[in-house]
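Quick note —
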Amino acid sequence: QVQLVESGGGLVQAGGSLRLSCAASGGTFSNLGLAWFRRTPGREREFVGSIMWTGGMTFYADFVQGRFTISRNNAKNTVDLQMNSLKIGDTAVYFCAAARGGLTSEKESQYDYWGQGTQVTVSS
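Predicted structure written out below.
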């Protein structure tokens, strides 16, 4: 059983940057597809981006528009989300998710493990 713990959330001004990290424990990190989702106030949880196990290929939601970067460190069992040029609309709880098999998807149902989330608040 893999446990995921997010960290790095907080309060940042619009235009600023924040780096979230997700640490995995309790199981093998290898062959996991990893993703970040977020839940903004009043909305369903939505896909932010993902990184595959094989080749480290990344995918991003349209709203990211080149502002966010996902990276993984397989030696440390971590996956990071670097967020730049943050907007007020990026205020949300951000969740880390992992899928067995190494592939990723925009669909929540494809993920087997979830973290508890970390709050990101972007102020004007």
